[in-house]
Write a structure and sequence with these properties.
It is a single chain. The longest helix is centred in the last third of the chain and has 17 residues, at 181-197. The chain has three domains: 31-91, SH3 type barrels, CATH 2.30.30; 93-150, SH3 type barrels, CATH 2.30.30.40; 157-280, CAP (Pathogenesis-related Protein p14a, 3-Layer(aba) Sandwich). It is α+β, with helices and mostly antiparallel strands and 281 residues long. A hairpin with an 8-residue loop joins strand 11 (100-103) and strand 12 (112-116). The strands form six sheets. The protein has a six-stranded mixed β-sheet. Strands 15-14-13-10-16 form a five-stranded antiparallel β-sheet, with no helix packed on it. Strands 6-3-9 form a three-stranded antiparallel β-sheet, with no helix packed on it. It is built from five helices and 20 strands. Helix content is 20%, strand content 38%. Residues 163-278 form the SCP domain. Keywords: Signal.
């Protein structure tokens, strides 16, 4: 009989506390220019054990007919050699390493069409020297290639929780919370502590209550709150659970908070542990 793990929720607001327990691969043939995500080998056949014809560096453009996909490899020709490259090593997408601008032309003195946040994905549709021609939504323009990493950026569980929280706040007409690396660190330690010490509570046997823990990590604040949960398997499910509880929802939609930290760990009795810490600074 399959064991069903329960889920638990709990949140805390300093000065008032609420608690509750929460073989050939089929692909249509299309000619594309794809880019190498990280250094990899051009193989003599569609097998990992085959010899390497040459090393392909990150960012290298390859002309590929996606209809040649076999055993997870694409066939391609580059530098006069025909060989096979892993599908997982090439992409038409890239993401910004920091806040970047999309320009109208290859010149950074040209009109700025759009500003991208860090880790924002774009589709590469061309290249000229040290510039990529990219598409972001309906915007098409040029970016500095060295400021981008090939491949789609996938948000971590913690980043997904922050995104979902800010979507809920936006729907309520509230300002977005800023993600804080120091609060992320504390939230992760709290989740790890609950998992490793086998408890589910706002009061940690290691760090004490939330004010004590924030003090221990030298975090100053005007107001603070905490939501915890255990058992939920995805960011969407845990945020949904919190939003269905008046106390947790109040923390998420509080007008006074300005920053958020999220910590997620797997393992332990409930397999998944979540902590949100909110502060007003």
């Amino acid at each position: 009989m399959k064991k069903v793990l329960p889920v638990f929720l709990s949140f805390i607001l300093i000065l008032s506390v609420f608690t509750s327990i929460g073989v050939p691969d089929a692909e249509a043939a299309t000619a594309k220019t794809l880019y190498v995500q990280s250094s990899t080998g051009l193989k003599s056949s569609a097998k990992s054990s085959s010899s390497t014809l040459l090393t392909l560096s990150a960012g290298r453009a390859l002309s590929i007919d996606t209809g040649t996909l076999k055993n997870g490899y694409y066939k391609t020709k580059t530098s006069g050699k025909t060989g096979w490259v892993l599908k997982s090593k090439v992409s038409q997408s890239a993401h910004s390493l920091s806040k970047q601008k999309i320009y109208k032309t290859t010149s950074i003195k040209s009109k700025v069409l759009k500003t991208l946040n860090a880790k924002q994905n774009v589709t590469i549709i061309g290249k000229s020297g040290e510039r990529y021609k990219v598409k972001s939504g309906s915007t098409v323009g040029w970016v500095v290639s060295s400021k981008f990493k090939i491949g789609t950026y996938t948000l971590t569980f913690e980043e997904q929780v922050v995104k979902l929280v800010n979507e809920k706040r936006a729907a309520a007409g509230l300002k977005a919370l800023k993600s804080s690396s120091s609060l992320n660190n504390v939230a992760e330690k709290k989740s790890k502590d609950m998992r490793d010490k086998g408890y589910f509570s706002h009061t940690s046997p290691t760090y004490g209550n939330l004010p004590s823990m924030l003090k221990k990590f030298s975090i100053s604040y005007k107001a603070a709150g905490e939501n915890i949960a255990a058992g939920q398997t995805t960011p969407a499910s845990v945020v949904s659970s919190w939003m269905k509880s008046p106390g947790h929802k109040a923390n998420i939609l509080s007008k006074k908070y300005t920053h958020i930290g999220v910590g997620y760990v797997s393992g332990g009795n409930y397999r998944h542990y979540w902590t949100q810490i909110f502060t007003a600074q």
